[in-house]
Amino acid sequence: MQGKQVYIFDTTLRDGEQVPGCKLNTLEKVDLALKLEELGVDIIEAGFPISSPGDYESVNMISKTIKNATVCGLTRAVQKDIEVAGQALKYAKRPRIHTGIGTSDFHIKGKFNSNREDILQRAIQCVKWARNFTDDVEFYAEDAGRTENEYLAKVIEAVIAAGATTVNIPDTTGYCLPSQYGEKIAYLKNNVSNIDKAIISCHCHNDLGLATANSIAGVINGAQQIECTINGIGERAGNTALEEVVMIIKQHKELGFFTNIQTKLLNPLSRLVSDTMRVPVQPNKAIVGANAFSHSSGIHQDGFLKDANTYETINPDDVGAEGSKIVLTARSGRSALAYRFQKLGFSFTRNDIDVLYENFLQLADKKKEVDEDDLAKLAQEYQPEMSEVL
Ligand code: KIV
Ligand code: ZN
């Protein structure tokens, strides 16, 4: 692999599982954790151990099961949370505690009714507590996206000095523009004296549909870890979609990054997460949506059938998708119709197709999609001398 590695921190089992109706039991979580490890994620955020006995059990079981990936447990900046997480992660080969506190004035005043100095001290303290359990401590500055950069830099410098080895800069409310988020990461790179002792992590939410763009802006500006979920599931509008950032990094080699993800497993795992959590994937979802490799308009179909590169930049096989599809609708063209007939074993001349196309359009205007049965019927009803069944 060439370039700089971007570590993939998967939080499907924690931030993803916070979605209403997505709760998983321990066996389902262990099963997904094994699949995430097979996919090649570097860190699995297994849960929030103090939140419920069930989540404690899941983090504990995942810790015992996972061999290569780091297993991480979330906590608040509360001593008891950290002790419970330390216990839950006891058997992990590579345990990480993810602790932190809100640093924006919205959180400092609105949530904690506190002040910046008090929050700074609590941030330092939680990292010190966590270091009693593991050397791998990640600190999150919740709502960093709306935290003033100067104060954020002060907090980050202090938590690194206290022993944080990864510093997470969440855009918790999905508010930042990519330029703003990128500048925030660059600011920390340039203004935190000990920043080279920690990895900067991006944790972006999708409230404005910018989570993926923000995460990429983050790594371009010096972050080296992306927190993400399969299918982009997560609180409210979700988190950064793992499959999107991984494929952006893979497709855009000029960025100079790589990840350890086995991209052929992306579609199968997307389906498994969707089925297990009972959250359907939107058809137009990048990389893993049912239509991600479907072509339905005549102009696109004609170009695609001449040369796939005209309308596809990703090979469906590279991401474990079923393959490109030529879908027949009232917007489809003659080339697509001829191609689909050919796939069914019917070989028609250009003139035949011209006539059949009119019949097809009449049907397509009535139906959303013309399927194989419809095509067979159209072919049977058409009786010119020139047509020939292969
Ligand atoms: O969105 C967020 O800020 C979080 C933190 C707990 C990391 O999920
Ligand atoms: Zn989050």
Verbal overview:
The protein has helices at 26-39, 53-65, 79-88, 105-111, 116-131, 149-162, 178-191, 211-220, 242-251, 266-277, 298-306, 334-343, 350-366, 372-381; strands spanning 4-5, 7-10, 43-47, 70-74, 95-102, 137-142, 166-171, 199-204, 225-228, 257-258, 294-295, 325-326, 346-347, 388-389. An 8-stranded parallel barrel has the order 2-3-4-5-6-7-8-9, surrounded by 8 helices. The chain starts with a strand and ends with a strand. It is α/β, with parallel strands linked by helices. Helix 1 runs antiparallel to helix 10 (266-277) and helix 7 (178-191) runs parallel beside helix 8. The protein folds into 2 domains: 4-277, Aldolase class I (TIM Barrel, Alpha-Beta Barrel); 294-389, no CATH class. Bound molecules: 3-methyl-2-oxobutanoic acid and zinc ion. Zinc ion binds at residues 15, 170, 172, 203, 205, 235.
The H-and-E topology, N to C, reads as EEHEHEHEHHEHEHEHEHEHEHEHEHHE
CATH topology of the largest domain: TIM Barrel
Sheet with the most strands, sense and barrel status: 8 strands, parallel, barrel
- Sheet-strand content, in percent, reads 5-15%
What hetero molecules are in the model? 3-methyl-2-oxobutanoic acid, zinc ion
CATH architecture of the largest domain: Alpha-Beta Barrel
Structural class label: alpha/beta
**What's the CATH class label of the largest domain?**
Alpha Beta
Shape: elongated
The multimeric state of the shown protein is single chain
Q: Major sheet: order of its strands?
A: 2-3-4-5-6-7-8-9
